[in-house]
Design a protein that fits this description.
This protein is an all-alpha fold and about 450 residues long. The chain has 19 helices and no strands.
């Protein structure tokens, strides 16, 4: 923003004054208001205020920017050249930081995988301890259902929640104000939770578990919670990611058209005629129609803000509006904006591509957990030991249902973890959770029908 404004002939202090009204940059907006207050109310010189802020801030990048600008002004250097140089340096740092963040996120995913392995071992240990005939032979008291529920549905999910908090602090989404998916999940979540509680504590509703085994009931309830918000998020992500992909091309077309001598408005109209932007083409057509109707760019930006929730797209369009309104859309400023947008798009695109393999990993661990636990339950209950009584089939089926339901719930939580890792928002986790539920339940059926029979036959 500072670089584009400087290229348009606007001083840094005037840029600060403009930043006071930009809600998309809340921290800088706060700084800008404090800057203007110190200058206009307390009577300090703008450079003096920037020098004090450079001493006060904890951000090394922000401090270097302010100190460098003060030095460039005092030495009479070219401010646009300095800001361009600083901008290139920031992009190099951002690119390196993106690569480091992918490595850190990869470490978190690997740690989560190890945690799931440990959880699997705990599951198997609880299965053995909960085997009634086995613990009676040892002379100990078998675990109560309350203990089993505590381990499966509280202790293990709590570890997943801890990793979600870690991922939330490390990964951020380019989408802002995503509320619709969570709102769509609220009422199904309340309804299904009430159903599960009623089935658990009301004996008259026991026929439901007779018709639907517990794993199938849990799977259906979790799918009811996940599918509506997953569809909602898919539509939001498709629209916004298409805009993120098409915005740099749009700005490049505006820049090149402006270089030919067209007015800024006609350059925008020319750029909106380009095809191949997917969902973003619909918004470009609306921009063209509004410009042709004589609607101001500022009003068009407010209309776009109600439709687009991608922070990079909104910031780029805002800077485009400021460039045209303040500097008349100078080609130098537009060229800087285009390069900024293209580099930002490339950094974010590469980061998402590097995180995609972890989605496959989530399916692998979900399937393996379902296959291993279910097979082990049947094997342990089918093996006969000298002196041990045979475990009734009803007890076996009850154990299988409880532990299978725990596996499905754990896979559902894993979907939110992977959604946060891969796309930066928990809203993306609804679609991954739904897919992991289907994969884990299918694995449970395969384990019960085919794999268990094969292993028991071998033993």
């Amino acid at each position: 923003m500072f670089t584009v404004m400087a290229a348009s002939g606007v001083t840094l202090y005037e840029s600060w004054k403009k930043l006071r009204s930009i809600n998309l940059l809340p921290t800088i907006q706060k700084e800008a208001r404090d800057m203007v207050r110190r200058v206009e109310v307390l009577g300090y010189d703008a450079l003096t205020v920037m020098y004090k802020k450079a001493e006060e801030t904890k951000s090394k990048m922000y401090r270097d920017f302010l100190a460098g600008y003060i030095s460039a002004v005092k030495s009479g250097g070219n401010l646009v050249s300095f800001l361009n140089s600083k901008l290139r340096s920031i992009f190099e740092m951002r690119s390196a930081a993106a690569n480091r963040s992918v490595e850190k996120l990869g470490t978190v995913v690997e740690a989560y995988s190890v945690m799931l392995i440990v959880s699997l071992c705990v599951y198997l240990l609880v299965i053995v301890v909960h085997s009634t005939s086995f613990v009676l032979e040892l002379g100990t008291t078998p675990s109560t259902p309350a203990d089993i529920y505590l381990v499966i549905f509280f202790a293990m999910p709590l570890i997943s929640l801890v990793f979600m908090v870690i991922a939330h602090k490390m990964q951020r989404s380019t989408l802002i104000d995503i509320k619709e998916p969570y709102q769509r999940a609220l009422f199904p979540m309340i309804g299904t939770l009430c159903l599960i509680v009623a089935v658990t504590f009301v004996p008259q509703l026991g026929f439901i578990t007779d018709l639907l085994p517990l794993p199938l009931l849990i799977s259906i309830c979790l799918l009811i919670i996940s599918i509506p918000p997953a569809i909602s998020y898919h539509n939001i992500a498709k629209r916004n990611f298409s805009a993120e992909e098409g915005m740099p091309s749009f700005l490049r077309d505006v820049t090149e058209a402006r270089k030919t001598g067209l007015s800024p408005e006609k350059s925008i109209i020319h750029a909106t005629k380009r095809k191949g932007h997917g969902k973003f083409s619909e918004h470009l057509r609306l921009i063209r129609d509004q410009l042709e109707w004589g609607i101001p760019l500022r009003k068009i930006f407010r209309n776009i803000k109600m439709e687009i929730q991608s922070w990079p797209v909104l910031v780029n369009f805002l800077i485009l509006v400021e460039t045209i309104e303040v500097g008349g859309g100078s080609t130098t400023a537009l060229e800087i904006l285009s390069e900024y947008s293209e580099k930002s798009r490339d950094i974010e695109k590469n980061k998402r591509a590097m995180l995609k393999p972890y989605i496959i990993l989530s399916f692998i661990w979900s399937i393996l957990m379902a296959l291993t636990v279910t097979s082990m339950i049947y094997i342990l209950t089918q093996i006969s030991f000298p002196g041990l009584t045979e475990t009734p089939f009803v007890t076996i089926q009850s154990q299988v249902n409880i532990f299978s339901a725990g596996i499905i719930f754990q896979c559902w939580l894993s979907g939110f973890f992977i959604g946060k890792i891969s796309e930066g928002t928990f809203a993306a986790g609804f679609k991954y959770s739904a897919m992991l539920i289907v994969a884990s339940y299918a694995s449970l059926l395969i384990s019960q029908k085919f794999l268990t029979s094969l292993l028991v036959g071998i033993l």
